[in-house]
Amino acid sequence: MNQPPLQRCREAHAGILLALDNASHAANRPDPVRLLAVSKTRTAAEVAALAETGQRAFGENYVQEALPKVEALRELGLEWHLIGHLQSNKADAAARSFDWVQSLDRPRLVAVLARHRPAGLPPLNVLLQVNIDDEASKHGCAPADVAALADAVAAEPRLRLRGLMAIPAPHADIARRREAFRAMRALFDALQARHPGIDTLSMGMSEDYVPAIEEGATMVRIGSALFGARPAKTDL
Ligand SMILES: *Cc1c(COP(=O)(O)O)cnc(C)c1O
Q1: Is the CB of residue 38 below 6 angstroms from any atom belonging to ligand 1?
Q2: Which pLDDT score is estimated for 30?
Q3: Cα(38) to centroid(ligand 1), Å
Q4: How far is the CA of 120 from the centre of ligand 1 (A)?
Q5: Taking CA atoms, which of 9, 16, 127, 155 is between 20 and 30 Å from 58?
Q6: Where does this protein have coiled-coil stretches (predicted)?
């Protein structure tokens, strides 16, 4: 209770790694599930402190919020993932500063990201965001559009298609979320038959990462369970 926040964060990180390990074993998963630490609203100092534990991958929702952190922490060699909606006018900055874009959801972004990915960097890793619950308020492409969008990404040498991402509707009933995870897994398997190189299914957050892993997630995105609750004003 009297622990400094830093210590609490490190302990939460160790606890989540253990829980991920247990869930992966229980679900008979051959490969370790990757943890993406969602650092939106957190400072560069908080990210640096968590990076000391060996955590490499960090997720940000807004390009503008992420750029100063990416700049400040460049020498740490962290892996930055954009997980929020990408506006077309921010795509050039995203292509220069992130290692992964998990929120590609429309054809227009493909060419812009490819054109702006600097020649000196490896290809930009891309996940297609799918609006799996068909929510009017959510970004993401329709499941029916995944194949064509994937083909477009795969045709760009400066992009590397890695898989799919989803944010299922936050049903209080975990069984409903599980249905969405299962539908994502089916989409992922179908896409893998078409693009055998893909390896990443990004789904599951603080509240539901265990069922997500049980249904096939290879990467979970965790913010509040790691860093503590976000201030309500900036909560997403
Ligand atoms: C904020 C956010 C997360 C993390 O959510 P928590 O509930 O804090 O773990 C994961 N994915 C996306 C896309 C987010 O915006």
Answers
A1: yes
A2: 83
A3: 6
A4: 31
A5: 155
A6: none
Residue identifier of the C-alpha nearest atom 10 of ligand 1: 221
Query: Tell me, what amino acid is at 22?
Result: N
Whole-structure pTM value: 0.95
The helix or strand, by DSSP H or E, that contains position 159, with its residue range, turns out to be strand 159-166
Q: What is the pLDDT of residues 215-230, one digit of tens each?
A: 999 999 999 999 988 7
> Where in the chain are the domains?
5-226
Confidence label for 136 from pLDDT (cuts 50, 70 and 90): confident
Distance 149 CA to ligand 1 centre (A): 24
- Residues 121, 138: Cα–Cα separation, whole Å: 31
Q: What burial letters (b/e) apply to 93-128, b meaning 16+ CB within 10 Å? A: bbbebbbbbbbbbeeebbebbbeebeeeeeebbbbb
CATH of domain 5-226: 3.20.20.10
20, 60, 83, 219: residue to mutate for ligand 1 pocket, most atoms within 8 A of CB:
83
- Nearest Cα residue to atom 5 of ligand 1: 223
